[in-house]
């Protein structure tokens, strides 16, 4: 088996420049410890790519991402580029990468670290023990359906979008979700609005069919309005949630915010392309869920943990290195348990540190494990 793991490193803008080096250092430390050969290649993306190359996703960056086994991305955007035409805004790079890499499944875990319970706006007894994963369909549904537009209508205008899903699209996202559930507590909740929307009636039917191949996973269905309510009422009932692009957009933000700390939340986007020589491993893009935080960029204040945890997801989902992935998560847990916090999650009685020191402390824990 080819042992080299090629990672395209795209720091992007703002705090992306500060948090990505920490995640790369963590991967390097893990590689050294376990004798894993990671190869890193870096390129510009987003606003800095616009400044340098005139476009948010230069051909060279795209080629690097497509040739790599996995992509580690920081964040893109910032006030400097906000006035630009929508077609060349930094955020277009993300859409371009998702499309060209065929990333149709977005995985967002929401885990509450016990020592962070006070950061949530919900009561401790409601959120303690949360460990759920939202699997969102990323390339179909109402965000991409045709026809779409705004047109003249009866003396005014008419805006319209199309919610469309094919059997194939539903089947492939369902399989990703069942596979994820299989590696966790084996419980999958599929979210739809089958009582009103025919396209999600099909969604429910196809997910139920795919379930036949996963008899060891318990499947239930829930309407999206009820899910939005259950997430704040009793989030611990969920293990894996699978849903459409738009419902997932909303619910994954809601689920993420249960934990109250944006700087701690990683994400993975997967396609169906296997890595050469590793048929069980999928190419993917890994990034924190937050943006480029221009308000704190360059001040050594950014929390690198969401990016470090995204790197841990990469090891698990793209490289099948579950033990190494768990070690990174454990190292993060230990640093938090020791009371170290970046300013965004600092509370009374904790020790405030900067981006670089947080990265260093995670590496020290990895070495000590
Ligand atoms: P943001 O996530 O960048 O910041 C929101 C708030 O959270 C800010 O106060 C910021 O300081 C804080 N924050 C975010 N990440 C943090 C971290 N790791 N550590 C400490 N604090 C952190 O969202 P925004 O302010 O709405 O957007 C800023 C820019 O980022 C915009 O240009 C937006 O388009 C872009 N953006 C990019 C992505 C992405 O690249 N995936 C996602 C969201 C927003």
Q: Keywords for this structure?
A:
14 strands, about 375 residues, alpha/beta, globular, binds nicotinamide-adenine-dinucleotide, two-stranded antiparallel ribbon, Isopropylmalate Dehydrogenase, 12 helices, 2 domains
Please give a structural write-up.
With 369 residues, this protein is α/β, with parallel strands linked by helices. It has 2 domains: 1-105 and 263-369, Isopropylmalate Dehydrogenase (3-Layer(aba) Sandwich); 131-258, Isopropylmalate Dehydrogenase, CATH 3.40.718.10. It contains 12 helices and 14 strands. Strands 2-1-3-12-11-4-5-10-8-9 form a 10-stranded mixed sheet, sandwiched between helices. A hairpin with a 2-residue loop joins β11 and β12. It is globular and about 60 Å long. The model has no long low-confidence stretch (mean pLDDT 95). Residues 15, 75-78, 91, 94, 262-263, 287, 290-296, 302-303, 306, 344 line the site of nicotinamide-adenine-dinucleotide (NAD).
* CATH fold group of the largest domain: Isopropylmalate Dehydrogenase
Q: How many strands?
A: 14
**Percent strand:** 15-25%
**Major sheet: size, sense and barrel closure?**
10 strands, mixed
Based on CA atoms alone, the radius of gyration comes out at 20 Å
The CATH superfamily of the largest domain appears as Isopropylmalate Dehydrogenase
Count of distinct structural domains = 2
Q: What is the CATH first-level class name of the largest domain?
A: Alpha Beta
- The dominant shape is globular
How does the helix and strand content classify structurally?
alpha/beta
Cross-sheet strand order for the largest sheet: 2-1-3-12-11-4-5-10-8-9
Just name the CATH architecture of the largest domain. Answer: 3-Layer(aba) Sandwich
End-to-end Cα distance: 27 Å
Number of helices: 12
Q: What bound compounds does this protein have?
A: nicotinamide-adenine-dinucleotide
Low-confidence stretches: none
Q: Which bin fits the share of residues in helices?
A: 25-40%
Mean pLDDT: 95
**SSE order, one letter for each helix or strand:** EHEHHEHEHEEEHEHEHEHEEHHEEH
């Amino acid at each position: 088996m080819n042992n080299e793991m090629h990672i395209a490193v795209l720091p992007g803008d703002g705090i992306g420049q500060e948090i990505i080096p920490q995640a790369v250092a963590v991967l390097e430390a893990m590689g050294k410890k376990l004798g894993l050969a990671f190869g890193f290649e870096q390129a510009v993306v987003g606003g800095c790519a616009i400044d340098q190359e005139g476009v948010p996703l230069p051909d060279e960056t795209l080629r690097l991402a497509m040739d790599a086994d996995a992509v580690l991305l920081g964040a893109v955007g910032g006030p400097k580029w906000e006035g630009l035409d929508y077609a060349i805004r930094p955020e277009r790079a993300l859409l371009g990468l998702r499309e060209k890499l065929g990333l149709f499944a977005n995985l967002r875990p929401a885990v509450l670290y016990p020592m962070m319970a006070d950061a949530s706006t919900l009561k401790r007894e409601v959120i303690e023990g949360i460990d759920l994963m939202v699997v969102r369909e990323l390339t179909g549904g109402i965000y991409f359906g045709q026809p779409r537009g705004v047109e003249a209508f009866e003396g005014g205008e008419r805006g319209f979008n199309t919610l469309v899903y094919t059997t194939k699209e539903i089947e492939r996202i369902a399989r990703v979700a069942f596979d994820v559930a299989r590696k966790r507590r084996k419980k999958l909740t599929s979210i739809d609005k089958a009582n009103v929307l025919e396209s999600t009636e099909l969604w429910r039917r196809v997910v139920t069919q795919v379930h036949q191949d996963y008899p060891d996973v318990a499947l239930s269905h829930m309407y999206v309005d009820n899910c939005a309510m259950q997430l704040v009422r009793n989030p611990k009932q969920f293990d894996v949630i699978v849903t459409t692009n738009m419902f997932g957009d909303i619910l994954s933000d809601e689920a993420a915010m249960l934990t109250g700390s944006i700087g701690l939340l990683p994400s993975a986007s997967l396609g169906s392309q296997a890595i050469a020589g590793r048929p069980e491993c999928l190419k993917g893009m890994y990034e924190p869920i937050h943006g480029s935080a221009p308000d704190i960029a360059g001040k050594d204040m950014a929390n690198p943990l969401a990016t470090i945890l995204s790197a841990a997801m990469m090891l698990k989902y793209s490289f099948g290195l579950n033990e190494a992935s768990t070690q990174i998560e454990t190292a993060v847990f230990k640093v938090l348990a020791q009371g170290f916090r970046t300013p965004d999650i600092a509370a009374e009685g904790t020790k405030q540190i900067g981006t670089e020191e947080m990265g260093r402390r995670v590496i020290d824990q990895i070495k000590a494990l």
